[in-house]
């Protein structure tokens, strides 16, 4: 696989290039056919940062790793990329299963025998209650109601990780969401505008602006 390497103020050894290529090939086995792959190494203060970008026909993965060494940062970025690839594969499988179930449903309904209209009306009627040993002049319809209705209490979950503390650009927000492995990220732009970044079921990222 052809992988584009970029080094910013750092040097990339041959062994590190080989490790990155082999790791990306493993991720590609999960993700499917990869049309473009790129790895960027850079240094920020005392941290080594590795960024991986993978693209298929319908999906794109951005994964970042940060550590004291380039090798450890690359390993972390590959783990994030593989996790995102697995989640995308699971989404596609779920969508395909749902589509197949919807296609099979009309055929199953067509094959199932239908009850006569009289039987359906009779089954829908509530039972008639009569006093034991006596004949009543009028039939009494009995309605049964549950004694204690079930009340479902809402459960609220704290999502502090979905809030970005510092202002950032849209590209930085996408990388931050992928790095945190979050489907939802609320952040402010450099112009102090409020945005919500959301990952749809097909894996695409959706951006919504919140008016102030």
Give short descriptive properties of this protein.
212 residues; alpha+beta; Double Stranded RNA Binding Domain; SHC Adaptor Protein; four-stranded mixed beta sheet; three-stranded antiparallel beta sheet; 9 strands; 37% helix; 25% strand; flat
Structure overview:
- The protein is of the alpha+beta class and 212 residues long.
- The protein contains 4 helices and 9 strands.
- The strands form 3 sheets. It has a 4-stranded mixed sheet. Strands 7-8-9 form a 3-stranded antiparallel sheet, covered by helices on one side.
- Helix 1 packs parallel to helix 2.
- The longest helix is centred in the middle third of the chain and has 42 residues.
Write the topology of this structure.
Blueprint: E1 4-8, H1 14-31, E2 36-44, E3 47-55, E4 60-67, H2 70-111, H3 117-124, E5 128-129, E6 140-141, H4 170-180, E7 184-188, E8 194-199, E9 205-210
Parallel strand pairs: 1-2
Antiparallel strand pairs: 2-3, 3-4, 5-6, 7-8, 8-9
Helix pairs in contact: 1-2
Outline:
The chain has 212 residues and is an alpha+beta fold. The protein has helices spanning 14-31, 70-111, 117-124, 170-180; strands at residues 4-8, 36-44, 47-55, 60-67, 128-129, 140-141, 184-188, 194-199, 205-210.
User: Percent range for helical residues?
Assistant: 25-40%
Number of helices: 4
Calculate the mean pLDDT score and round it: 78
Q: Structural class of the helix and strand makeup? A: alpha+beta
Low-confidence stretches: none
Which outline best applies?
flat
Number of strands: 9
CATH architecture of the domain at 4-92: 2-Layer Sandwich
CATH topology of the domain at 4-92: Double Stranded RNA Binding Domain
Strand line-up of the largest beta sheet: 1-2-3-4
Largest sheet: 4 strands, mixed
Computed over alpha carbons, the radius of gyration is 29 Å
Kindly provide the name of the CATH class of the domain at 4-92.
Alpha Beta
* Terminal Cα span: 47 Å
Instruction: Tell me the series of helices and strands, N- to C-terminal.
Output: EHEEEHHEEHEEE
Q: At the fourth CATH level, what is the homologous superfamily of the domain at 4-92?
A: Ribosome hibernation promotion factor-like
Strand proportion, as a percent range, falls in 15-25%
